[in-house]
Amino acid sequence: MIRLDGKQTSVALKNEIAEEVAKRKEQGLKQPHLAAILVGNNGASETYVANKVKACKEVGFKSSLIRYETSVSEEELLSRIDKINQDQDIDGLIVQLPLPDHISEEKVTERINPNKDVDGFHPQNMGRLALGSPCYVSATPHGIMELISRYNIETSGKKCVVIGRSNIVGRPMSILMSQKGIDATVTLCHSRTVGLKEICLEADIIIAALGKAEFLKADMVKEGATIIDVGITRVPSDKTKSGWKLLGDVDFENVAPKCSFITPVPGGVGPMTIASLLYNTLMSAKNEIY
Ligand code: GUN
């Protein structure tokens, strides 16, 4: 069994990005610049955004964190997005989700200039992905594809089961795994799927992205399968300093011995997500299309 080390792989990807940033600097080109909008004080979102800002520093990007109280109006948020859309110095803009109930995530996502949409959530970017000529692939699916490619995991003709149909992970993953050049045969499963265990038992590759801690058990996995775990659920723990620990969607301890490859949680998909966001931001800076 080989652990897919997202931490180490993300460092390699970040080093490649940092090298390009340094080269750009030598050529007198501007630093890539990521702007992140955070509304309210959701604990998980705070951590994610702080990690994104920190990662920008590591690779030599400029970053701007724009914070709003939960009470901010949709109108104010949208007008800030309009301003950033026009700011020539900013290459990438993300609005951390979830947003408070009175703000439409759909409206916000659609307002972001697709050329700065480094999260890849805009319908134009999702549409391009579906049509087979992606511009910005959203960060988690992009990170998973990097892991699969850098570990030379065979995908052609393989049976791939994706569990979870979210717009952020499951659905784009199902598209990417079936695209030309990757050539897996994909089954996209969800909460209404009948016979999930039997479907999983046939799979060469399982991508678990349903958000239920330790959902995928050893009796659902075929010997030699590759398992990609996208889940991160915080559960209380008296064994850690912070008082909580992270669990994936996979019962790692019991599933791992059956696998050929598996991602741990933490240290698997998570670090790749942030590195991929940086990758998209660098791409935007290189394209210089605003
Ligand atoms: N919330 C959870 N994941 C993400 C992400 O990748 N981007 C944004 N903007 N919000 C998120």
Order of strands side by side in the largest beta sheet? Answer: 1-11-8-7-5-6
**Count of the domains:** 2
Compressed to H and E, one letter per element, the order equals EHEHEHEHHHEHEHEEEEHEH
Helical element count?
Answer: 10
Strand % is: 15-25%
User: What value does the Rg take, in angstroms?
Assistant: 19 Å
User: Any guess at the CATH architecture of the largest domain?
Assistant: 3-Layer(aba) Sandwich
CATH level 1 name of the largest domain = Alpha Beta
What is the residue-mean pLDDT, rounded to a whole number?
96
Q: Could you name the CATH topology of the largest domain? A: Rossmann fold
Distance between the termini: 45 Å
Keywords: Hydrolase, Oxidoreductase
Protein name: Bifunctional 5,10-methylene-tetrahydrofolate dehydrogenase/5,10-methylene-tetrahydrofolate cyclohydrolase
EC number: 1.5.1.5, 3.5.4.9
Give a structural overview.
This protein has helices at 6-26, 43-59, 74-86, 105-111, 123-131, 139-150, 170-178, 196-201, 252-255, 269-287, and strands at residues 2-3, 33-39, 62-68, 92-95, 159-163, 185-189, 205-208, 226-229, 233-236, 244-247, 261-262. The protein has 290 residues and is an alpha/beta fold. It folds into two domains: 29-119, Rossmann fold; 139-269, NAD(P)-binding Rossmann-like Domain (Rossmann fold), CATH 3.40.50. The protein has a six-stranded parallel beta sheet with strand order 1-11-8-7-5-6. The protein has a three-stranded parallel beta sheet with strand order 3-2-4, with helices on both faces. Strands 9-10 form a two-stranded antiparallel sheet. The mean pLDDT is 96. Residues 94-97, 119, 139, 168 line the site of guanine.
